[in-house]
Design goal:
single chain, Lyase, Ornithine Decarboxylase, Chain A, domain 1, eight-stranded parallel barrel, 12 helices, 20 strands, binds ligand LLP
Amino acid sequence: MDNIEHTKNYRFAGYDTVELAKKYGTPLYVLSEEIIRSRCKELKSDFLDKYENAKAAYASKAFLTMAMCKIIESEGLGLDVVSGGELYTAIKAGFPMDKVMLHGNNKSYEELEMAISNDVGRIVVDNTEELYIIEEIAERQDKSVKVLIRIAPGVGGNTHKYITTGQKDSKFGVPLAKDTIDEAVAKAMKSKHIELLGMHFHIGSNLFENDSYIAAIDIVINLYKRLKDDFGFIAKEINTGGGFGIYYTKDDCVKPLSYYTDSIMKAIEDKCKELGVDIPAVIIEPGRWIVGEAGITLYSIGSVKEIPGIRTYASVDGGLPDNPRPALYSARYDAVVANKYDQKPDRQVTIAGKCCESGDILIWDLKVPEIKRGDILAVFSTGAYNYSMASNYNRIPRPAVLLLTKDGEKVIVERETYEDLLSRERVPF
Ligand code: LLP
């Protein structure tokens, strides 16, 4: 990775990771503010400033804390939230609500009410029924709610099947059946309290090709044209979701942001011109791309077990509870032994987590120098969907999150304690 500096200990974003592990304990999530901000700046220079009609929101499900809200706010991006909890975090952080977009395939009445009372900028509606609930709440509160309708464009992404969403057979979005779409559009357009701005789609996550975006754009702009003809509907926005792929291992063929965004913009412009419809504003909502490579996780090596002629397992003090991605999606990661960064990785070990679960393997066949108890392992690209997906399985407390800033490192989430694990329990005997 480009942020590696060659010293004895592995340094991340200018910090000695072995010192961080010593000072804050392990496992430890470490995030670089500078890398997060540099991604936001790239988004600005290569997309927002380049195109007049471009907008971007950070998909907060990738990683959300109040401190992260502050970073995203100061970088001028919007925020995509997908639950009452994410919305609550944004509210508590004082995030500007007009820049918040609420998603979700099953928003509760309470979540919709919370969003509308707080005047969120957009609600991305997943089905017609939701429009009735929004109308009822908005009428009661005498508000007008800006919505996009999420459609399932029938285009899948080339990624793990658990993180592809745009295909026909998906729990997300209104299916591309004429009657169903028309019912939703007619309902939204008729409502005095709903302002229908356009459509949203999200193909999937960690995509390395742009073809599925282009295919979905073709479908959505064709739909705009038909809705214009049938209902006089003028689409002001199109939201093309997130999903840009990042670097996990050397097998990932990472593309620059503009590879996706330039082709998205061109496809929209070309298709709108071809069909004679107005070019809408374009919203993208990357999560992983902003925060994924900005994070690493530090672990301590514990037991090292060699099975002669088979393999060596080196176990770390975390695993599946702080990073469920290898178990869920067969996700692959790369890592270094941080305190032996200058030593030649001349052997191979499998990095196992500490859970009572054979599937709790973080990395198969990692090249390392001689490895033993007490060594510090730094696993790369854990900024997205690690902390946000962490659990307490096996009653393992969640790690702290440390933000590396220009003014030193700051704990932005404290390490959980055993007391925290019991804090909501009541014993009725
Ligand atoms: N917009 C919508 C509507 C989404 O559903 C998602 C991700 C995003 C944006 C952001 O996608 P990104 O840019 O981060 O790829 N837990 C899985 C990823 C699930 C993503 C769900 N939706 C993982 O760890 O790979």
